[in-house]
Specification:
Layout (H helix, E strand, L loop, with lengths): L19 H58 L3 H6 L8 H30 L2 H10 L11 H4 L11 H22 L3 H7 L9 E3 L2 E3 L17
Helix pairs in contact: 1-3, 1-4
């Protein structure tokens, strides 16, 4: 006798092995993971993104701060720049000197913008590295196999008895006993069909009221049949 149980899904024999149970197990595992881990993963993801973004922005601010300081120092070193700023861009300078100074200032501003863009790109491309780092700080702890919650889960206290199966079996037995009891006694309508007809059985309803049917009239007597 083969004691191996049939497939719990399609009831196919155990050999050859049926893929139904493994497929359903994968589905159940994914569903359990979603129920148990989705909220936690979302919390971890938000924490990692928040710290990674903060680090990237801080690094970018440090780079741009250094670049802006160098830009300000370069402008201050230009000839006649202090007079240019004193007169808000309209100093009493020779047009040639003013044009030359304005070209130098414009080129310095363009170089600063290119440098800021480069600093931002250099900061953003580090996101994978920064994300990996902060994800590595997250600790996932598995309980010991000797822990009571692992060795004696709540559903194992009763010896792995399926309460749902017991309940369904008890319900089926109650329904079966009720059917047997009903079968042993004749139906109510059969008892009613065996009783003697009464006057009420020949009544009929007219406009919501019950009346006795009219009497049948006596047939007329033929003249030739009358006795003298």
């Amino acid at each position: 006798m083969d004691a191996a149980p049939n497939c719990a899904i399609c009831n196919a024999p155990a050999y050859p092995e049926c893929p139904c149970e493994s497929e359903r197990l994968q589905i159940a595992v994914k569903q359990a993971e979603a129920r148990a881990m989705d909220s936690r993963l979302a919390e971890i993801r938000d924490w990692v993104i928040s710290h990674a973004r903060k680090h990237i922005l801080n690094a970018f601010e440090r780079l741009t701060s250094t670049r802006k300081q160098a830009h300000a120092a370069y402008l201050a070193s230009l000839p006649n720049y202090s007079i240019y700023m004193q007169y808000s861009g309209h100093p009493p300078l020779h047009p040639f000197l003013l044009g030359q100074l304005q070209a130098q200032i414009s080129e310095a501003h363009a170089e600063l913008k290119r440098g800021i863009d480069a600093d931002w790109r250099a900061s953003v491309v580090r996101y994978p590295e920064v994300l990996d780092y902060f994800y590595s700080l997250v600790e996932v702890r598995l309980p010991s196999d000797r822990a009571q919650g692992v060795s004696q889960p709540p559903f194992a206290v009763s010896g792995y008895v399926d309460k749902g199966y017991e309940l369904s079996t008890t319900t089926k037995e109650k329904k079966k006993s009720r059917r047997d009891r009903d079968a042993s006694s004749p139906p109510e309508r059969d008892r009613r069909s065996r009783r003697e007809p009464t006057k009420e059985d020949h009544s009929y309803t007219v406009v919501g009221r019950t009346r006795v049917p009219p009497m049948v009239p006596t047939p007329p007597i033929q003249p030739g049949n009358m006795r003298r």
